[in-house]
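Morning run. Coffee first, then this:
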Amino acid sequence: MIENRRQVRTDGTGNADILETAAQCFMEQGFSATSIDDVARRLGATKGRIYHYYSSKTDLFFDVHREGLERLFQAVEPVMGIEGSGVVRLRAMLTAHAMAMMTNAAFEAVVVQGVHMHRMAATTPDQRRTLDDLIAIRRRFEGLFKQVLQEGVDDGSIRNIDISISAKAMLGAINWLSVWYRPASDETEMDRQMLAERIVTTQIDGVRS
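And here it is:
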């Protein structure tokens, strides 16, 4: 789980709807094209309410990013310890990751945007430090998959592969959902589950022993 979450996220003061609304705006318009005015207008609130919690659009973006990472950990960590071989646990983790990407599409789109922002270095020094912290959390998330891939190689259920490249390739394929996936109006949980399993089967077939 993510440590040192902002106190404002856990004190019950009611900014969850700000995060939800901001995530939708950032997903649809991107960071650069989204303003605090856009978020306030969509929320049906004043800018003052948002500024009560966040001093800038960038701080708001970072908190949406952090929440998106938190939701990924919440989805994947519980299935990481299920009984079974490495490949069985890897499949469960990848499926949970794919489901989280679809269930929390707006938040996870912001996580992916944050990675691009980090690569472009389009931030101030203070913002860069915060973004570096978020990217470090993302690397810890990737580390969960590297660990289980290695355990699968060790128990023989996964063939001898480059662990780092395989983890990045698998997660990259699932993260791409943030680019092309948009839920249908009549979509069900079962529809998402079936899509997740189809995506994951392609990944697992590439590493299975």
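Residues 3-13 have pLDDT under 50 and may be disordered. Good start to the day.
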